[in-house]
Write a structure and sequence with these properties.
Elements (H helix, E strand, L loop, with lengths): L1 H17 L18 E6 L6 E8 L7 E3 L2 E3 L2 H13 L4 E10 L1 E3 H18 L2 E11 L1 H4 L7 E3 L4 E3 L4 E3 L4 H7 L23 H25 L4 H8 L3 E3 H7 L4 E2 L2 H12 L6 E6 L27 H5 L5 E5 L8
Parallel strand pairs: 2-5, 2-13, 5-7, 7-8, 7-9, 8-12
Antiparallel strand pairs: 1-13, 3-4, 6-14, 9-11, 10-14
Helix pairs in contact: 2-3
């Protein structure tokens, strides 16, 4: 019945568009044109507030359209929340609730930079709590935190970079198709999907990968006190379950979100009755810290569930701080 209602709503929207009424504002849907507003997810009597920011999903600078909604990107959304928080002097701490396999190298680095800038500008303490997955770029954005905690079931790590690009040369050879290229320099078409890379091109790509990896690795060294032996384990870019992540120094503790909030209050020296808030574009009844909605209304109005292709659709040719093994959609 729930799926039927979703499809019925989507169909109705499509009919409105096709009938020439696409400029009608549908007030039961929210998108990035609706302002972020403060909502309380944990009551408190103190004037001090803790801001909860959800970093949930693939980290990217790209937004998108969901039927007719213009949704904000992860980067845009986090930056908007940090800017609102910077103007509220009653916000004394920020808790990042991270559930992400990572994303593009640039988007991950931008969010890291914006969180660091927020800390320096406001003097406000930042904490991170990891949920299912906080891998690669999902770990990078957690690094500015004073303290990183995770669930007993969290998978984290994957400190490294991957370069993804399609290769069609084998297929082209099988079906008898070739691509002729005129170029201005010998490396102008490097990475072309229509031919194999040369040894020189492989070396160039590897040097870029190494540079991006060193950038990530240097941030881990900057923010975390980890022994050389454990740094070598982390450098293999493997993932770790919570207990192992604690042992190698990737996280500071294992707990649940309510305990992470209590830890923020204790570490930042705040009143125990501090209020926990979020910024949302829509008000939810019985709202709480487990609601990860930011821009969209609850529910997915996509007409077709593409499964794994939905995740892979985000993966354009490029360099990623991401753990590819976690990209399967449920």
């Amino acid at each position: 019945m729930e799926n039927f209602i979703k499809y019925a709503v989507a169909s109705a929207i499509c009919l409105i568009i096709l009938s020439g009424c696409a400029n009608v504002k549908l007030t039961f849907l929210t998108d990035k044109t609706d302002p972020l507003q403060e909502q309380t997810v944990q009551e408190g009597t103190s004037s001090s507030k803790i801001l909860l920011i959800n970093i949930d999903g693939f980290i990217s600078q790209e937004g998108g359209m969901d039927i007719i909604r213009d949704n904000s990107s992860m980067v845009e959304d986090v930056v908007a929340q940090l800017r609102l928080a910077a103007d509220d002097k009653r916000i004394k701490a920020v808790l990042l609730k991270v559930n992400s396999p990572g994303g593009t190298s640039t988007a991950s680095d931008i969010i890291y930079h914006e969180i660091m800038s927020y800390r320096q500008k406001t003097g406000c303490k930042v904490y991170a709590h990891m949920m299912d997955i906080a891998a690669s770029g999902g770990y990078m954005v957690s690094l500015p935190a004073e303290r990183i905690t995770c669930q007993p079931t969290t998978v984290t790590g994957s400190v490294g970079v991957i370069f993804l690009r399609p290769k069609l040369d084998g297929l082209c050879e099988k079906i008898g198709v070739s691509m002729y290229v005129s170029k201005s320099g010998e490396n102008k078409d490097m990475g072309s999907p229509f031919r194999k890379d040369t040894k020189e091109e492989d070396e160039i790509f590897q040097s870029i990968i190494n540079g991006l990896n060193e950038h990530f690795y240097s941030l881990v060294q900057k923010h975390r006190k980890i022994s050389p032996e454990n740094l070598n384990r982390i450098r293999t870019a493997r993932v770790f379950l919570a207990d192992e992540a604690l042992k190698v120094g990737l996280v500071d503790g294992i707990c649940y979100p309510d305990d992470a909030i209590k830890g923020c209050i204790l570490d930042a020296g705040l009143d125990k009755s501090s209020r926990v808030i979020v910024y949302r574009r829509k008000e939810y009844p019985d709202d709480n810290i487990y609601n990860t909605s930011r821009t969209s209304t609850s529910g997915n109005y996509s007409l077709v569930n593409l499964g794994v292709l939905s995740s892979l659709g985000n993966m354009k040719t490029g360099f990623y701080y991401v753990w590819p093994g976690s990209l399967m959609d449920k």
